[in-house]
Amino acid sequence: MPQKKISFLFFLLHIVFFNFAFSQKISEVDKIVAKYPKSFNSTEKLAERIEKDFDSDAERARAIYSWIAFNVKYDYNVYLNSPKAQGFSYSSEAEKQRKLKQINDNLIQKTFKTQKGVCEGFTALYQYLAELVGLKCEIIRGDSKVSLRDIGRKTTSSNHAWNIVLIDKKWRLIDVTWGQGYYDSSKGRMVNDYNPVYFDTDPDYFFAKHFPDSGTFLGSRLSKEDFLNGPLIYNTTIEKDYRIKTPDSGIIQAKNGDKITVEIKNVSKSNQVFYLNKKNQAVKVLNPKEKRGGLEFQILIDNNIGDYVTIFIDTNSIVSFKIVSK
């Protein structure tokens, strides 16, 4: 499932500073990979190039991430019109596994050659390339949280997939599907926008937006209900380490006249902090207080507040909450 991003009034400002911001956020590995051919004759040739150019597991894992994110595009049409699961018959477990492997191999090669796919293709290709360069990698399937309607959602079916890769004896979280770009609902199309934030993501942030089907990959971090009822965070929240201290729930029960107290770490009074009312107008927060390495402020619940409140810092959406009347 693609990551969604809210369009806003500062779109032109975003365009002006895009090249500068891009140069700041890519690593030396990314710069090298950006000069690679857009296509290789085979996955093996790409793996050989990565092994030649990079020595460490961390660099090779990042190189695979950046090449896929630079060159493979999310196929939103396939996402909207998902083909039916491919069925087959078999007479033994060995035959079943051979056929499953063939289906997976076909998916990998199709994604690699057409340079298009959905999360299943992205993750299968990442795993295959990782194994070619000697990395241990797995595919994790589960639920994702990307839009306002996901806050408090009741349906809990699996809708996404990502990878974990073993680097320096530690499993690292990777979502290369979200690294390649996002879906812009205002334009009705995918936008290619490389983002390294989903490579080796901080687990606290990653699991605010991903919930694995198997608890093995999550531990006792939180329950599925807590995941669905939590606030919706955005890419910039992760990039800038804007930790949402309060409210800790994404569903806020309030009546007219109530005030919601919000505390966000790593923000100061020098930042422009505001939220949108139901007319999509920016409302600047009043009397913010610097507190414990962050900023605390209040939002008044009145007739101008809609069903959701999204808080912005400078020009970027940071966190959204769902407002439920008492």
Automatic annotation (TrEMBL):
SUPFAM superfamilies: Cysteine proteinases
Pfam families: Transglut_core
Domain Transglutaminase-like: 111-178
InterPro entries: CAP/Cytokinesis_protein (IPR052557), Papain-like_cys_pep_sf (IPR038765), Transglutaminase-like (IPR002931)
SMART domains listed in its UniProt record: TGc
Gene3D superfamilies xref list: 3.10.620.30
One annotated Gene Ontology cellular component of this protein: cytoplasm
PANTHER family hit by this protein: CYTOKINESIS PROTEIN 3 (PTHR46333)
Name of the protein this chain belongs to: Transglutaminase-like domain-containing protein
Lineage: Bacteria, Pseudomonadati, Bacteroidota, Flavobacteriia, Flavobacteriales
